[in-house]
Amino acid sequence: MHNKSVxxxxxxxxxxxxxxxxxxxxxxxxxxxxxxxxxxxxxxTEDQALADARTADEQRAAGNATPWTGVPFAHKDxxxxxxxxxxxGSKMLANFVPPYDATVTANFRKAGAxxxxxxxxxxxxxxxxxxxxxxxxxxxxxxxKRVPGGSSGGSAAAVAARLxxxxxxxxxxxxxxxxxALCGITGLKPTYGRVSRYGMIAFASSxxxxxxxxxxxxxxxxxxxxxxGFDPKDSTSVDREVPDYTATLNEPLKGLKIGLPREYxxxxxxxxxxxxxxxxxxxxxKLGATVKEVSLPHAKLAIAAYYVIAPAEASANLSRFDxxxxxxxxxxxxxxxxxxxxxxxxxFGNEVKRRILVGTYxxxxxxxDAYYLKAQKVRRLIQQDFVNAFQEVDVLMSPTSPSPAFxxxxxxxxxxxxxxEDVFTIAINLAGVPAMSVPAxxxxxxxxxxxxxxxxxxxxxxxxxxxxFQQVTDxxxxxxx
Amino acid sequence: xxxxxxxxxxxxxxxxxxxxxxSGSSTAYGAEPNTQANAVDLAMPGTLPVPNxxxxxxxxxxxxxxxxEIERRSVFERKNxxxxxxxxxxxxTQLARPIVGPGYVDIELGNGxxxxxxxxxxxxxxxxxxxxxxxxxDSMGHGMTGVDLNRAGTPLIEVVTEPDMNNAEEAVAFAKxxxxxxxxxxxxxxxxxxxxxxxxxxxxxxxxxxxxxxTRTETKNLNxxxxxxxxxxxxxxxxxxxxxxxxxxxxxxxxxxxxxxxSRSMRTKEEAxxxxxxxxxxxxxxxxxxxxIEEARNSLPELPDTRKARFMDQYGLNDYDAxxxxxxxxxxxxxxxxxxxxxxxxxxxxxxxxxxxARLNADEKSVAQAPVDGKQLGNLVARIADNTISxxxxxxxxxxxxxxxxxxxxxxxxxxxxxxxxxxxxxxKMVDEVLSGMPDQVAQYQNxxxxxxxxxxxxxxxxxxxxxxxxxxxxxxFNEILARKLDG
Amino acid sequence: MTISRKDIEKVAVLARIQVxxxxxxxxxxxxGNILDLVDQLSAADTESVEPLAHPLDAxxxxxxxxxxxxxxxxxxxxxxxxxxxxxxLAPRVIE
Lengths: 481, 488, 95
Fold this sequence. Notes:
The complex is a heterotrimer.
Chain A: H1 6-15, H2 20-38, E1 41-44, H3 46-61, E2 72-76, H4 103-111, E3 114-119, H5 153-160, E4 166-171, H6 177-183, E5 186-189, E6 209-214, H7 217-227, E7 257-261, H8 271-286, E8 290-294, H9 302-317, H10 336-347, H11 350-363, H12 369-392, E9 395-399, H13 415-419, H14 426-431, E10 435-443, E11 446-454, H15 459-472
Parallel strand pairs in A: 2-3, 7-8, 7-9
Antiparallel strand pairs in A: 1-3, 4-6, 5-6, 5-10, 9-11, 10-11
Chain B: E1 3-14, H1 53-65, E2 73-74, E3 77-80, E4 90-93, E5 103-108, E6 114-126, E7 130-137, E8 143-148, E9 155-161, H2 168-185, E10 197-207, E11 217-222, H3 225-244, E12 252-257, E13 262-268, E14 278-279, E15 286-287, H4 290-298, H5 304-315, H6 319-327, H7 329-342, H8 345-363, H9 374-385, H10 391-403, H11 409-415, H12 424-436, H13 439-447, H14 451-468, H15 475-487
Parallel strand pairs in B: 11-12
Antiparallel strand pairs in B: 1-9, 1-10, 2-15, 3-4, 3-14, 5-6, 6-9, 7-8, 10-11, 12-13
Helix pairs in contact in B: 1-4, 2-3, 5-6, 7-8, 7-9, 8-9, 9-10, 12-14, 12-15, 14-15
Chain C: H1 5-14, H2 21-38, H3 73-77, E1 83-84, E2 87-91
Antiparallel strand pairs in C: 1-2
């Protein structure tokens, strides 16, 4: 059963060929037996999961089932779960048990899904390799010592290793798409505001967006059906109708206009990666799509703008971790300053501290205009690039990451080298548009992802394009051994 | 050297909303610590702010009342600093686009002149919690601060004036005027003892007539008009001493201790925080349309200036009394209730500004806390006006009302036997008896030419008369009868 | 763009993060590299470009002034590092 998709498991539950308790046991066994190799989970909630599975079976028997009732999955450990430890990959929250649910968590509860636990991640979602987690690095199921990408590396590895059929994730600069690509699965970052951020621990508020990870586009659609929607508790959530994302998966792609951003397929891209993208685009042409080159002239400035805006927002968002009301507190503080500075020095890891300091610097007196304001202006230019592009084409396609999964320790000596990992994903967050990563081939036995970018609120169109691709390819079905 | 004093004020006004500015927690005063601090107020991870519409309505009403421009598209910023009573590590406030733009308030001065004080702007922000420094110790015996976050997130408007005031009298007059405006609007309960209004005073001195402003200091968190007056006097003197000794003023924030009349430096400009303001990414721009603003305009109640004019016109009060009564909405309401029952407006005003206010001050009570209401005061005034009781008797009734023994004016008058005798026949009999027993004094009086002395001598008969009437004779009628009989 | 040790120490105080000399040296290099990356921004022509704070051009929704929260002090203080009589405890603040 562990190779089945969410859609298949949902049908099996509906037909009664398997119970939720049986499924839950199977997946919990797999986690217990296999996750030692990957470290993809921080917390496994066995008892709670089995209790929820029993409830789900009762609900099914009573005829109160949703497509998700009894289906196992996992949450990235950034979503607050009432009564279940929520760490955000940090020592700061290593023992934090929130007495409240994130809206996303509550939505899955309401749908009857069975959460098996909380997945590993880069600390406070800051990283592209899952090496900054307080709970240790995650290993990519496709290669020993290979990173799974980040920050949602635990969710990606768990789905790739068939420990869960689906997992929630978040994406601030590529944290869904890049690990999805590196682990050979399908991931979707929705339009900013499509999924509530309430109870999702903030990294950079104007960029963060919750999203989906599973092996198939169809499963991503099923997840988004649960996650998307207006939330009165999130001022930046959008009050806009949520379609049934599974309803349009089978629309034909004839006439789909694909744009290839010149700047993303430059001569700096490795020939092997370029080939994978071009091959994927050929499949789309076979499906009736047309292709043209487009330009995102300011895309090259995206990383620079991002590394002002995201750290600036983070520097304030993470000020609440002060050792006073919850979370880590240093031993025997001798005065208030000591409480603050040692709690935060001991509770945060190096990458988090670096970003807080960069953000603090960028906002400090004398630098605000040159950094923060400038970055916001460049952000508008980048957004305008996308607006312009979507007047010409329906979707944009590019590689998701510049290379497949790299070796642990290879890129974390210099932060900037690591930051360049997000060169193709980061502009999307600045613009706020939705994008997916879809498995599109292999280089040296390691999966690569095709990034499909859409206009605002075009998730249904993206899922449709990904699903159709997955009807004619089987990259997403490949299993790591 | 002669100095000009330059004063500007920053006033924090707590808005009387039911809930906090960014969460649905109650703002009621006096709850057990941290029972009104929910996940958002505590800055729990992942929680987000959602602004309260009423706070915007109140801010707009304030803006309209001080003749200000309303910012149609206002933005919230984060002001970053660490303090235990600031849960998020930043205060959500407005810097670049505050909701209320430039406006003004006219104040009346003791010499009868009025002066315009310009308002630079007023912005919406959240209050911090409270740090309690009582004797709390950890297991190691270290002194600890206790933090109560019930107040955290209470909506405030911070009103910032131009440096248009030149002495303590003007500053206090402005503060009182502002108090009258916000309480009349009903957007603030005005209870300064509970911190509902708090004043920061910016003071600088410059040589008389100079165009250049001196270095200023800011004295923070003054929570009564009296402390404000004292603090200004104290700070002016302190700066003057320094300047006259050839020293220079340090730009700094100071704390004033009203009980000891002392102040000390809290932090200098060099130590000042770098607050790193930037737009709050959890909130979007607030756009107010014409309908919202017009609705607020239509809901504006009568403001002190209009009310004062009406009091003079409708009740025939003098400028001074009308100003005092109209300036405070609760006092104004009490006055009108008193007049409704007591009819005599002038007498009502005298009682409220006299006996009633004196008792409030003595007991340190607000109008709302007073044990005597307008109906009772009105009934009292009516009994004075219709000669049922003398003013001396009325004071006894008032004391009884204040003590709360019995709420009914007539019952008190009966129980205490304060009803005065106003039957002229009976009084005339008493006068005849008393005068017949005092022939010498009568003769002396009648031989006196000087009317002033005669009038004084008339008082000499009152004592025996009051005695004869057991204190219940109507003194006014006694006077009339005496004068008629003796002058006859 | 270089960042000095003094800048780093100042920023670390603002951010309330203790750093030792060795960390300052590492940060000098890392933050210097990050700021070099960020300095690409200065090349962009942003004349007459409005800053963009939010990806969606939306306006703020306002909430009715109704109490929706109940007392949950016990649950919140169960996860607090130090409380007494319902108060959160922090080292004494001297003003």
